[in-house]
Amino acid sequence: MIGHVLTNSNQNEKTTYTTDSAKEKPLRSIVKSISWRLIGTLDTILISWLITGELALAFSIGSVELVTKMVLYFFHERIWNNIKWGK
Q1: How far apart are CA 19 and CA 50, in angstroms?
Q2: Are residues 86 and 42 in contact, defined by beta-carbon separation less than 8 angstroms?
Q3: What whole-number distance in Å separates Cα of residue 63 and Cα of residue 20?
Q4: I want to staple 58 with a disulfide (CB 3.0 to 4.6 A). Which of 8, 39, 49, 83 is the partner?
Q5: Is residue 53 within a helix (H) or strand (E), and if so which, with residue range?
Q6: What number of H helices and E strands is found in the chain?
Q7: What does the radius of gyration of the chain's CA atoms come to, in whole angstroms?
């Protein structure tokens, strides 16, 4: 199963932009961005708090990181969705 997913070994499955975009819509990328960033931001806040010892500073770092990395991830996903390599 994992080998099939990693290598896309089913040769009968041909993807085009139209079929791929139907599978991975921008809204899905947004939801994935939000869920992943919540996990990542909690991690950043915890690490920042452990390093600085200041909870307010840790939340400040986490809030900036939350927004910037969510935007970067969304565009990263959309760009990779258009690359046919490895599909």
Answers
A1: 46
A2: no
A3: 33
A4: 49
A5: none
A6: 4, 0
A7: 18
Cβ neighbours of residue 86 under 8 Å, at least 6 residues apart?
A: 8
3-state secondary structure of 86: coil
Phi (first) and psi of residue 22, to 5 degrees? -70, -30
**Average pLDDT, stretch 17-36?**
74
pTM for this predicted structure: 0.56
Distance, CA of 34 to CA of 63 (rounded, Å): 13
Is there a contact between 6 and 84 (Cβ–Cβ < 8 Å)?
A: no
Query: How sure is the predictor about 27, in pLDDT bands with cuts at 50, 70 and 90?
Result: confident
User: Of how many residues is the chain composed?
Assistant: 87
